[in-house]
Specification:
Elements: H1 2-7, H2 9-35
Length: 52
């Protein structure tokens, strides 16, 4: 088991970082959705973008 980990440590680290970033983006998206903010970042009623 330790041999597998030592041979694939860089892959495991990169995978963990990517998984963490995806989790962060997902949590942020869910929090923004619950707050009612727009996904494009405009967030105002007078916004010219139709991203809602």
């Amino acid at each position: 088991m330790m041999r597998f980990i030592s041979e694939n440590l860089s892959t495991i680290i990169v995978g963990a970082v990517v998984l963490g970033l995806i989790g962060f983006a997902l949590v942020r998206t869910i929090r923004n959705y619950r707050k009612g903010t727009s996904p494009c970042g405009c967030g105002g009623d007078d916004c010219s973008k139709t991203c809602r």
